[in-house]
Amino acid sequence: MTALGRTGVQVTPLGFGAAALGNLYTPVSDEQAHAAVQAAWERGIRYFDTAPHYGLGLSERRLGAALRSFDRASYTLSTKVGRRLEPADGTGDDRAHGYAVPATHRRVWDFSADGVRRTLEASLDRLGLDRVDVVYLHDPDDHAEQAFREGYPALERLRAEGVVGAIGAGMNQAGMLTRFVRDTDVDVVLCAGRYTLLDQSAADALLPEAQRRGVSVVVGGAFNSGLLAAPEPGATYDYTRAPRRLLDRALRLKAAAERHGTTLRAAALAFCAAHPAVASVLAGARSAAEVHDCAEQFTTPVPDAFWQELRDDGLPAGKGPP
């Protein structure tokens, strides 16, 4: 277990990303969702991440239900604020946002102090818990002014009151996360998709700055939403169809991994976990089988010769783990 920043909140090196429990792309049954969380527990995972955005609250409800049988002090749970859910008429579905759920609610961007508290209270109701350990400002890309002026100070107050143990921001970009690290007193940032075998933009400023300031980094999107898990025609990259040039890069990386007796999935996870600023790597899963596979890949050795080949051939991410 690793502590987040200077807090007492601890996370396991491999965490469980619960977006798929909100029916990301395709439906998942309650039984499948429960089995996935149970499998994560069996594999020693004790850090679980969710958000209201994931399936209009479905992920939070399912995750809370699945964790209810475990001692609350034995795991770490994070959720997010910034998208407040308001009831809708329920007609249609939420597939435009990527989730196969009825449109029972609508998302309202809200990084105000009141919005932060209201969103967190609603999350606790859905989770069936009296507290969460970590709260992230979720994707404030187009709402920077309000997030820094109102949302972040609200999180500071929640931390000071002991309502949450650690605070931060979670985004799919490195630039604004670097600003959070430099200009605020966040404990942790969640960077999705920007420190992978295909995209190391977080290594330019975010990771070294976080390391200097003692801020922890949680890495999400190690597989870039699918391409590095199964590079094949039709694979997704950043939630859309992967362009041919990136598919070709992923196929070259896969071939290199296989030449050295390992897998691309193992290399993708190892790359993320190796940086000293990284406290945990989140792996999303929609079934027990996917959880078990991620856990196996996370502990699969990646030979030094693989990283050396990448350096020699000038392949993407050829610098290998730091």
Labels describing this entry:
37% helix; 322 residues; eight-stranded parallel barrel; alpha/beta; TIM Barrel
Account of the 3D structure:
With 322 residues, the protein is α/β, with parallel strands linked by helices. The chain has one domain: NADP-dependent oxidoreductase domain (TIM Barrel), CATH 3.20.20.100. The protein has ten helices and 14 strands. An eight-stranded parallel barrel has the order 3-4-5-8-9-10-11-14, surrounded by six helices. It has a two-stranded antiparallel sheet with strand order 1-2. Helix 5 links the parallel strand 9 and strand 10. Helix 1 crosses helix 2, helix 5 runs parallel beside helix 6 and helix 8 crosses helix 9. The chain is globular and about 55 Å long.
Q: Largest beta sheet, briefly?
A: 8 strands, parallel, barrel
Mean pLDDT across all residues, rounded?
96
Structural class call reads alpha/beta
What is the CATH homology-level superfamily?
NADP-dependent oxidoreductase domain
Tell me the number of helical segments per DSSP (H or I, 4 or more residues long): 10
Structural domain count: 1
Corresponding CATH architecture: Alpha-Beta Barrel
Helicity, as a percent range: 25-40%
Strand content: 15-25%
Number of strands: 14
Shape: globular
Low-confidence parts: none
